[in-house]
Amino acid sequence: MENEQRDIALKTLNYLCNGSQIEGLNFYGIRLLLSESENNSQRIDGQISINIESEFEIFDAMPENTPLLHELPDLNWIDSAKKLCELRLKKIVDIKLGEEQPNLYLVFDSGEVLFINGHHEEYESWQVGVHNHTNPSDVFEVIACPGDHIVTWVPDDIVE
């Protein structure tokens, strides 16, 4: 993962997620729905969401080491949804992104950490974006791509 792309992605993730709460779950796949925050509510009028397409875990605190894939639970869709419901209305207070792989860490006001594995050789692992935004020139999207790459679409003023 290139440092410049990682930095842009992290700024975008902070803009979209920091200060938001988990306000829902979309039942088509695993998609967490986030509230707007004080940081972005003047600009975002669509739905901010995190689409999870890989393994994840909720830790009581920030793990000391990057969790390995075989250490993460292999949950079916129903158990994944139940587990993510534990985060209902919890506020995101920090976002971290892996150095080598686009592993996503969402830190909550409870101290809990949602870790989403960002490594896959063939598929996207997760996406964070805004859907149904009324300003088509304001595109917000961060995608953990195959092969440990990350791509971001974001207005220039957000990352300057």
Number of strands: 10
Quickly count the domains: 1
* Range of strand content: 25-35%
Distance separating the two termini: 20 Å
Uncertain ranges: none
Keywords, separated by commas or semicolons:
4-stranded antiparallel beta sheet, 32% strand, 160 residues, alpha+beta, 6-stranded antiparallel beta sheet
Describe the structure.
The chain has helices spanning 3-17, 77-85, 156-159, and strands at residues 22-26, 30-34, 47-52, 56-59, 92-97, 104-108, 113-116, 126-131, 141-145, 149-153. It has one domain. It is α+β, with helices and mostly antiparallel strands and 160 residues long. 18% of the residues lie in helices and 32% in strands. The strands form two sheets. A six-stranded antiparallel beta sheet has the order 1-2-3-8-9-10. A four-stranded antiparallel beta sheet has the order 4-7-6-5, covered by helices on one side. The protein is globular and about 40 Å long. The two termini are 20 Å apart. A hairpin with a 6-residue loop joins strand 5 and strand 6.
Summarize the SSE layout with pairings:
Layout lengths: L2 H15 L4 E5 L3 E5 L12 E6 L3 E4 L17 H9 L6 E6 L6 E5 L4 E4 L9 E6 L9 E5 L3 E5 L2 H4 L1
Antiparallel strand pairs: 1-2, 2-3, 3-8, 4-7, 5-6, 6-7, 8-9, 9-10
Quick structural summary:
The protein is α+β, with helices and mostly antiparallel strands and 160 residues long. The chain contains 3 helices and 10 strands. The model has no long low-confidence stretch (mean pLDDT 93).
